[in-house]
Specification:
The chain is α/β, with parallel strands linked by helices and 350 residues long. The chain contains 14 helices and 10 strands. The site of one 2-acetamido-2-deoxy-beta-D-glucopyranose has 6 residues, from loops.
Length: 350
């Protein structure tokens, strides 16, 4: 894991690459406020120590609600997943079940009528609302929104205009209520068509893969991504969207809130399976709620969504790593989901 103030990656190119290699080998992290990097763009601040990597994990640990017998059902998170249509039923299932396995109390799925029985049949643990293609989606979802802590928009949403329009309505209503929103997959396609829908809403977290990231970047800047300066591109996209949190998924996950850039290179495996992103978005839904609730006091003044994103990325990678050790090439997302509990305790409860 490397944490660094985002800009000037090219300026510090060679030394950074060398330092980064040593640092990641030692699993050392470093934080830099952006300003200091701008001021001193030709040097990389000296790494503090192994303590700093430990620190970011510690910040994640700080926001995890303790398990006590005093709470009632729902207090540790009621997460809503918006997605699931005729073609795609796996994605919303993976996101919703991952949220539950991470420790959310309830996971709701808002999907189309024909996707609902399929998703229900995967799991009796999910609450499934067949409302996404209803003429009354707005009212149906509005009934539930006040009870939800985070909304995850996009897993299995597809690109049907009616569904995208309904997803848009849900984003707008969530904004009015100040509910944190995670946007993934075709939710990001919607944002690329209409960035103003989310621009300036700092409780949003976008989780694009490289393709989705490039599309968003081209929409905002009318130029393509500079793949030699990915950190800076992630930082710039976040700023252009009004400093909401952007998680660029890839070989390393690059996370920015417009001020800081954080790199998660926790060891996963060389195998990436379809659905892994849904595990990330679902668990991020829960962590975003916990971090938001805990606030900057518990995250040492750092943006809670940045901490949540780092937590979800490292957890997803840990699940990948554990499942790969068991199943190798035949690993699937179902195997990864089965590892959530163990991966979580390994990373955050030791
Ligand atoms: C989109 O979904 C709506 C509602 O389910 C349906 O009526 C319509 O035919 C779909 N459009 C396309 C192009 O598939
Ligand atoms: C975003 O963050 C940068 C860096 O901290 C700051 O200069 C800028 O004013 C912020 N923009 C918004 C819209 O908050």
């Amino acid at each position: 894991m490397i944490i660094w103030g985002g800009t000037a990656a090219r300026a510090v190119g060679i030394s950074l690459a060398a330092v980064a290699a040593v640092l990641s080998a030692l699993l050392i992290c470093y934080w830099l406020p952006l300003d200091s990097v701008l001021e001193r763009s030709f040097s990389v601040h000296k790494a503090h120590s192994v303590k700093d990597m430990e620190n970011i994990f510690q910040l994640v640990r700080n926001v995890i609600p303790p398990l006590t017998t005093k709470k009632h059902k729902g207090q540790d998170g009621r997460i809503g997943i918006v997605g699931g249509c005729q073609e795609y039923t796996g994605a919303p299932y993976f996101a919703a079940i991952s949220a539950l396995k991470l420790g959310a109390d309830l996971s709701h799925v808002f999907c189309t009528k024909d996707a609902a029985p399929v998703i229900k049949s995967y799991s009796p643990e999910l609450i499934v609302h067949p409302v996404l293609d209803s003429p009354h989606t707005d009212e149906e979802v509005a009934k539930w929104l006040p009870r939800l802590h985070t909304i995850v928009i996009g897993p299995g949403l597809g690109r049907n205009d009616t569904l995208l329009e309904n997803a848009k309505g849900i984003i707008e209503k969530s904004k009015v209520r100040g509910i944190p929103v995670v946007i993934d997959a075709d939710g990001l396609w919607l944002i690329a068509q209409q960035p103003s829908l989310i621009q300036g809403y700092q409780r949003a977290i976008l989780t694009p893969n490289y393709m989705e990231f490039s599309r968003l970047y081209e929409t905002m800047f009318r130029t393509s991504v500079d793949s030699n300066d990915n950190h800076r591109c992630v930082l710039r996209l976040s700023q252009a969207l009004g400093n909401l949190t952007v998680v660029q998924k890839g070989e390393k996950d690059i996370i920015s809130d417009g001020e800081k850039v954080l790199v998660c290179s926790h060891e996963g495996s060389s195998r990436r399976c379809g659905g892994q992103g849904d595990l990330l978005s679902g668990s991020l839904g829960v962590l975003a709620h916990w971090a938001f609730l805990a606030g900057p006091e518990k995250t040492n003044g750092q943006n809670p969504f940045l901490v949540a994103a780092f937590g979800a990325c490292s957890l997803t990678r840990q699940c990948n790593n554990q499942a790969f050790q068991k199943y190798g090439r035949s690993m699937t997302t179902t195997d990864m989901v089965a590892e959530v509990g163990m991966a979580f305790s390994k990373l955050f409860e030791t």
